[in-house]
Amino acid sequence: MGCVLCFAALAGLSLAVPTDREDEFIPHQFVSKFARSGAVAAIDLATRGVLEADAALPERLALGAPATCGAGRKLPNIVMVFDESSFDVTALPGVKAPPNYAERFRSSDGKTRSLVVEGAGGPSWYTEYNVLTGLSVRSYGRFAESVTRLAAGRVKRGLPYALRNCGYKTYSLYSWFGGFVGARNFQTSSGIEHFLDAKQLRVGSADTDMFFYDRAAEVIAREHGNGPVFVFVYLAVNHFPWDHRYRPDLLPDWTNPGNSFEVDEYLRRQEMGVRDLAAFKERLAREFPQEPFFLVRFGDHQPLFAKRLVDPSLAPSAVAQRILDRDPRYFTTYYATEGVNFQPVDLSSALDTLDAPYLPLVVLEGAGLPLDPTFVEQKKILRRCNGLFYLCGGGAEARRFNRLLIDAGLIQGF
User: Fold this and answer.
1) Nearest CA to 310 among 97, 122, 90, 23?
2) Based on the domain organization, do 116 and 170 belong to the same domain?
3) Whole-angstrom Cα distance, residue 196 to residue 189?
4) 174 and 288: one domain?
5) Is residue 353 classed as helix, strand or coil in its secondary structure?
6) CB neighbours of 161 closer than 8 A, spacing ≥ 6?
7) Angle, CA 54 vertex, CA 50 and CA 60 arms, to 5°
8) Tens of pLDDT, residue by residue, the chain (414 residues)
9) Does some domain include residue 232?
């Protein structure tokens, strides 16, 4: 009885005063964190399980033979750029930016589009899960922090699988170590055939975005003769901290716009990234003049300092509450599409504001590839919900979609 009462008290405390996700990475209160998270996990497992899904549905996904991919035309190579911590920082009040700053977020059709991610201030793996599986991290509730570990080997649907059905070779160039939050196991079980992490790529502390673009160009040079290539490129130059001048030898003509040091350094690193991207596109056009390329860039989350500056008048506790309430100001980044030797085929799903789980739809349709039955169904959700995914219908659409995938055998083991 004493154990039951203690557990109830601990669970009540943990639910009433939830931990801040950034605090999980600070090395203190180990026993408290373990006990509180254990109590909450036990309650969630008993009441809702790991993954939210409807109990039963009368309908089923009609999974059939894959449609013909690109009959009579050459399929574009696809480069998907994971633009670390990047967004339009002028969304923050009072920030001064260089001239033409907004152009870096513009697509080749002239539009600037917003991506609404599911993590605020740091969880890159949330957006990694979104854009590879096309599903929501929020469906995991309090287990979201472990989403990539949980999904490894269990989620059998997503962008890499769809591309492999069309003959694509799938690569991921990961800027950190493959064991981080189970990235290697997750991606290789999600359809990525070749996962190369920082150790395999031999990433150095002084490497800029151009290092990863060069590795992508090498993959394309090696593989493009064997069919189309998909390369998922992670960038790292704009990762925190922004408290020092990274590679001071670069951008000798740079002048700080006049913000705090971390914001000016953030802008300087973004400028480094813009120049590296331009050089990469020029290299693709020069070295592969007969090859079409479809590029999709996106910001995985806002930089860590942004949440303090969205509304500087708020106390940290009030900011945490806004994030818990899913205030879009803390979750909005960008996505952009463009072609090299290629004109995007269909951008009807590329809404001005789009939830991150829909980005695979943009990639597939932009490349002119057919949608399998799961993506056909997800496009119907996009239209019904006007770009919202999990938050549409209070999670009802996501729960229904998860059940359809479970019944089709594409989500297993939850």
Assistant:
1) 90
2) yes
3) 14
4) yes
5) strand
6) 190, 191
7) 120
8) 998 888 788 778 777 777 666 666 678 888 878 877 888 788 888 888 899 999 999 999 988 766 688 777 899 999 999 999 999 999 999 999 999 999 999 999 999 999 999 999 889 999 999 999 999 999 998 899 899 999 999 999 999 999 999 999 999 999 999 999 999 999 999 999 999 999 999 999 999 999 999 999 999 999 999 999 999 999 999 998 999 999 999 999 999 999 999 999 999 999 999 999 999 999 999 999 999 999 999 999 999 999 999 999 999 888 988 998 999 999 999 999 999 999 999 999 999 999 999 999 999 999 999 999 999 999 999 999 999 999 999 999 999 999 999 999 999 999
9) yes
Q: What is the pTM of this model?
A: 0.93
Q: How far is CA 324 from the centre of its chain?
A: 19
Residue 73, judged by CB atoms within 10 A of its CB (0-12, 13-18, 19+), counts as: exposed
DSSP-based three-state secondary structure for 94: coil
Q: Clarify whether residues 36 and 93 are in a common domain.
A: no
**Sequence-ordered alpha helix ranges (H) in 17-138:** 30-47, 124-133
56 occurs within a structural domain: no
Q: How many domains does one find in the chain?
A: 2
Q: Are residues 21 and 123 in the same domain?
A: no
List the structure tokens of 336: 């952009």
Q: Is residue 70 part of a domain?
A: no
Same structural domain, 12 and 157:
no
Question: Do 348 and 397 sit in the same domain of this protein?
Answer: yes
**Residue carrying the six token digits 């990433």:** 203
Residue range(s) defining the domain that contains residue 26: 2-47
Q: Within 10 A of 81 (CB to CB), how many other CB atoms are there?
A: 25
